[in-house]
Amino acid sequence: MRFADAGDAELEFVPAGSTWQSLPADANPRIVHVDTGGGRFDHHQRKVQNLCSAELVRRALAPYDQALERMVRQVCQIDNALAPASEQGFFNINALITGYNLLFPNRPRHVAYAMLPNLDAWYEHEIRQIRLEQAFARRLEFDTRWGLGIAMESEDGGSSKLAYRHGAVLYAYRDGHGWMGVAAQARSKVDLTPVFQALQLVDGDADWYLHPSTRLLLCGSPKAPPRVASRLSLPELVRVIQGERPAQGRR
């Protein structure tokens, strides 16, 4: 429906293993069976680990779509009970579908259409993650009094997951709006109060905010756009974090 110009397709549901009106699965090209009937999009007859019907559809319709490939990889893990043990207790996309089925036990079409916006949102999230990973490859690493720092600049800002996974104790970022931020690991002993005080001296007109935890500094966010954006470049912000004071900030 999203990747094969089939937005006006009608959805019909049959018991698992059966076909629509008992017809052979691939007899009519205008009737596409998925996950049932033994056709080209049914993985059950294939003795391949970590394969699901969604992956067969992806290979046929959008084999080069990176965001979709990442989504379907997770779907296959869930479908084959191969999700990492650390994630099995977390609420995931399958749990959301289960919840819809509990709300509407006899309305599978309603469940499917209710899920489409959620899948669209997941797809957009994966596209953003790809952009962040590309920006992270151009990151700036620097030393701080607390340990490794990472700075990155992208349309989407920074990524705590990527920074902390790489071993950083804190990261700084600048996004496409010119908004900036510094964040530290929650379990760290980082106190950004001295950095905030230094920013008040070198970038005093900007709308910098120090979170009460003292591990988060922001100058603009989607929830709180700044009245005055920072004049500093990302390298200048890094120097402030390191204890230096740029002579003059610039946009």
Q: Any descriptors?
A:
single chain, alpha+beta, 2 domains, 11% strand
Provide an overview of this structure.
- The protein is of the alpha+beta class and 251 residues long.
- It has two domains: 20-134, no CATH class; 138-241.
- The protein is built from seven helices and six strands; from the N terminus they run H-H-H-H-E-E-H-E-E-H-E-E-H.
- The chain has a six-stranded mixed sheet.
- A hairpin with a 2-residue loop joins strand 1 and strand 2 (147-153).
Topology (elements, then pairings):
Layout (H helix, E strand, L loop, with lengths): L52 H9 L4 H14 L13 H11 L4 H29 L3 E5 L2 E7 L6 H6 L4 E5 L5 E5 L8 H10 L6 E2 L5 E4 L14 H8 L10
Parallel strand pairs: 2-3
Antiparallel strand pairs: 1-2, 3-4, 4-6, 5-6
Helix pairs in contact: 1-2, 2-4, 3-4
State the assembly state of the protein chains. single chain
Write down the domain tally. 2
| Radius of gyration using CA atoms only | 24 Å
Distance between the termini: 44 Å
Helix content: 25-40%
> Can you summarize the main beta sheet?
6 strands, mixed
Arithmetic mean pLDDT: 92
Characterize the overall form. elongated
Number of strands: 6
Contiguous helical run count: 7
Q: What is this entry, summarized?
A:
This protein is α+β, with helices and mostly antiparallel strands and 251 residues long. The chain contains 7 helices and 6 strands; from the N terminus they run ααααββαββαββα.
